[in-house]
Design a protein that fits this description.
Its main location: membrane. InterPro entries: ABC3_permease_C, Lipoprotein-release_system. It is a multi-pass membrane protein. Belongs to the ABC-4 integral membrane protein family. LolC/E subfamily. This protein has about 775 residues and is α+β, with helices and mostly antiparallel strands. The chain has four domains: about 200 residues, no CATH class; about 120 residues, no CATH class; about 190 residues, no CATH class; about 120 residues, no CATH class. It has 22 helices and 22 strands. Strands 3-4-9-6-8-7 form a six-stranded mixed barrel. It has a six-stranded mixed β-barrel with strand order 13-14-20-17-19-18. A hairpin with a 7-residue loop joins strand 3 and strand 4. The chain is elongated.
Length: about 775
């Protein structure tokens, strides 16, 4: 076998350009598979470890105010393993160095450290001390964003009274892996933070002695979550319960779970494309090698080498570059995965986010690469094995040609000779040309899909921060306010426009389907907040009935004209039938809208307001912000500009990284297909081109004949790639969408222009390399080659 090994290494060295291209495509596919698989496993493992170590609850419930002795009643429910009751309140903060007011979520903890559900991980500093009600532990993202540390102070307005709080520790909790202000979808780390303080201090500040407003519990093995939730809802209905819900509906868990799901989707799509291209490349390269080495195969068989020896030898042409690609791809995938995990560390707040690669994923990736190599080489190896020595000693029978459309008299007179040669060759090898066009178009499609997220995010920013929301500030009240509060805010000097809304927690019921949802009552849909779908089309607020987002309507199984049963979960807890007036395909969340006057009638009271949208005079905004910091009755303030800046900052980092990776891999894919196609064409037509050169054709003319064929393939591949890119992006949008958000399917001219320029650039580089080989072509040696 030493003879075969020397021959294999010699041939691989001669074909190093093509083999490196094959190895690069395999490496890209393996790198995507390894990076995405390892990221998904690392996120799942980190989440599971975090949840287990800090006892993340299974069921959650918020109430208005319930007696503490019900904790024992909940503990006695069959299937309940552990219970924790707390006091939670959202307050306005005055943070050093921050002009605008911030919002803090205060969560009660025992004065003495003890094991509890949704436990704390103290990263820096210490736990609070008994008898010091001013001490708090603050969430790490908030402290980092505001450049604060243990020992610093913030001021909070708690129950209408200002209280200076001392930060003694930096904490994290599994309950806030994704730390976002209630009512918002994007984190604003500077203006929203979570704070843990003494249960006794919060009871005193909020007049909640012997009571709680938040309950969480874990389930015993085999317990029915649905049954326990039903018991909790029945028991705590009288205490203003909004309805218990499982972990799958907890906002932070939903975000991280959706992220893991999306990573899993990417594991299958991109590696499949790259390995499919590797199969194609190996097939055409090996078939050409077998075709050019017929006489060598005959000699090897004639001197006693078996079919198995010959088959394994040619299989080595596929396995060695594939093995090299698998090794490089594994290392590259591990490096990319580690980089992606550092980005996730900025998005999500884990106590410990550990990156690790499973042996199973590496083994599976190697197996997939080996299968791709076998699939791509099987046909060529079979031809080599089945070739009888006597037949192999003879040259291949020349193909039988006949006149085609290009040979018609009219076309011959009007088409230049080089172009006729190009078109004739393409028409005689339609199948090979079609496959080449399809492979190149896949690279274009990946480029389109890679930058599609830019266009989708631009549309999201336009819709959410320009078309839908036009306010500067959203002021959320800690209690429903009477309509007269509108006059109080409107009278503030510097408030240019004001709007109000009412939000009621309800249970929507249609047939056997139910959904807990906030029903939002608006004054209009043409003011500071507008109803805009993800295509940026405006919708009017119906005078009667409820307007649902399309995803919510699908979850309930309702259409326009159907009648929903709406059950209020607070106050009178009345139930009323309401007609569905239509649906709107919004980008974010699940929403239900109603005219505020109809919602007041539904609630059966004189009206109430939960929040206000305000547009401020920029010159007076700083003074208004100072007033808000001291104003009682405010639970939180959301700044539209700040959320937009936070969104752009976080999204830009992740998109830049992912787009750079996909663009690089798509360039490798395009180069491999174009370069290999041109190299194969050169080896197949070397004698023809040399003959034309001897007959008087210039180097430019034969270069046009060879490279023009590749140019035509690329020109056909680009529009097909555009269509495939749109299809791939639409599929990704559908697969990655969830109840939390839906990606709009939208494309900019820049996206297509970028893909065109990248593919054209790759083609020019390939053409330059092929042209150099063409210039160095030994005409005499080629013409002496036996057909």
């Amino acid at each position: 076998m030493k003879l075969f090994n020397r021959k294999l290494l010699r041939e691989l060295s001669r074909l190093k350009g093509q083999m490196v291209a094959v190895a690069a495509v395999v490496a890209c596919g393996i790198a995507v598979f390894i990076s995405m698989s390892s990221v998904r496993y690392s996120l799942e493992a980190s989440k599971a470890k975090y949840y287990s170590r800090f006892r993340f609850a299974d069921v959650f419930m918020q109430v208005k105010r319930a007696p503490e002795f019900y904790r024992q009643w909940v503990s006695d429910i069959p299937g309940v393993a552990a219970v924790n009751t707390r006091i939670i309140a959202d307050v306005t903060l005055d943070v050093p160095g921050l002009d605008e007011p911030a919002t803090g979520r205060l969560i009660s903890i025992p004065e003495h450290p003890a094991a509890m559900l949704n436990d704390l991980f103290i990263k820096n500093g210490r736990y609070i001390e008994p008898g010091k009600p001013e001490e708090i532990i603050a969430s790490k993202p908030f402290l980092d964003a505001n450049h604060l540390s243990p020992g610093d102070r913030v001021t909070a307005v708690i129950n209408g009274r200002r209280k200076e709080l001392v930060i003694v520790g930096t904490g994290l909790s599994p309950e806030y892996i994704y730390e976002v202000q209630p009512g918002a979808f994007f984190p604003d780390k500077r203006r929203f933070g979570v704070f843990w303080m003494s249960r006794r201090a919060l009871e005193s500040a909020l007049d909640m002695d012997g009571a709680f407003n938040d309950l969480s519990l874990t389930l015993a093995h085999g317990a029915s979550e649905k049954d326990i939730i039903m018991q909790l809802d029945r028991q705590f209905e009288r205490y203003g319960s909004l309805g218990a819900f499982g972990r799958s509906e907890q906002l932070s868990d939903r975000f991280i779970s959706d992220e893991i799901k999306q990573v899993g989707i990417q594991i299958t799509v991109l590696p499949t494309i790259f390995l499919a291209v590797a199969v194609f490349l190996l097939n055409i390269v090996l078939r050409r090698i077998v075709a050019t080495q017929r006489d060598q195969i005959a000699v090897l068989k004639a001197i006693g080498y078996t079919n198995e020896d010959v088959g394994l030898h040619f299989l080595g042409f596929a396995m060695l570059p594939t093995a090299a690609g698998a090794i490089v791809g594994t290392a590259l995938g591990a490096w990319i995965g580690k980089g992606l995990m550092s980005i996730y560390a900025d998005f999500y707040n884990f106590a410990e986010l550990v990156y690790s690669i499973r042996f199973e994923d590496v083994a599976l990736s190697v197996l997939l690469a080996a299968l791709a190599a076998l699939t791509g080489s099987l046909g060529a190896v079979r031809e080599a094995v089945k070739l009888p020595p006597a037949e192999a000693m003879r040259p291949e029978s020349p193909p039988i040609y006949k006149s085609g459309r290009v040979d018609r008299e009219l076309l011959r007179r009007n088409m230049p000779l080089p172009l006729r040669i190009i078109v004739r060759n393409l028409m005689r090898r339609k199948w090979k040309a079609s496959i080449s066009v399809f492979m190149i178009s896949l690279a274009v499609a990946i480029l389109i899909a890679g930058r599609y997220t830019y266009d989708a995010v631009d549309r999201m920013v336009q819709v959410e921060f320009s078309s839908r929301h036009r306010e500067d500030v959203t002021v959320v009240f800690n209690e429903p306010m009477p309509p007269s509060v509108a006059q109080d805010l409107a009278s503030i000097d510097g408030v240019l426009e004001h709007e109000y809304y009412r939000e009621e927690p309800v249970k929507l019921r249609f047939g056997h389907r139910t959904k807990r949802q906030a029903l939002k009552g608006l004054e209009s849909a043409s003011g500071l907040q507008r109803l805009v779908d993800r295509s940026n089309r405006s919708f009017a607020l119906p005078e009667e009935g409820v307007l649902l987002t399309g995803t919510l309507a699908d979850a309930l199984g309702v259409r326009k004209g159907d009648t929903l049963m709406v059950e209020l979960l607070q106050g009178s807890r009345r139930s009323s039938p309401v007609r569905v007036s239509g649906t709107i395909d919004e980008i974010l969340g699940l929403s239900a809208y109603m005219n505020i006057r109809q919602l007041d009638q539904l609630a059966g009271d004189g009206g109430a307001l939960n929040a206000a949208y305000l547009r401020l005079d920029p010159e007076k905004a700083t003074r208004i912000y100072q007033d808000f910091k001291n104003m009682p009755g405010i639970a939180g303030i959301m700044m539209l500009r700040s959320m937009k800046e936070s969104f752009n900052r976080l999204i830009a980092q992740s998109m830049t990284t992912s787009t750079l990776i996909l663009t690089s891999f798509a360039c490798v894919l395009a180069f491999a297909v174009v370069y290999n196609g041109a190299r194969i064409s050169l080896s197949e037509r070397a004698r023809e081109l040399s003959s034309l050169r001897v007959l008087g054709f210039s180097m430019t003319e034969i270069s046009v004949i060879l490279l023009g064929e590749q140019a035509i393939l690329i020109l056909f591949a680009i529009p097909l790639g555009f269509l495939l890119g749109i299809l791939l992006s639409a599929m990704l949008s559908l697969a990655l969408s969830s109840e939390l958000y839906r990606l709009p399917v939208v494309f900019s001219t820049t996206n297509f222009l970028f893909a065109f320029c990248v593919i054209t650039g790759v083609a020019l580089v390939s053409a330059l390399l092929i042209h150099r080989r063409l210039v160095k072509l030994d005409l005499i040696a080629v013409l002496k080659t036996r057909e």
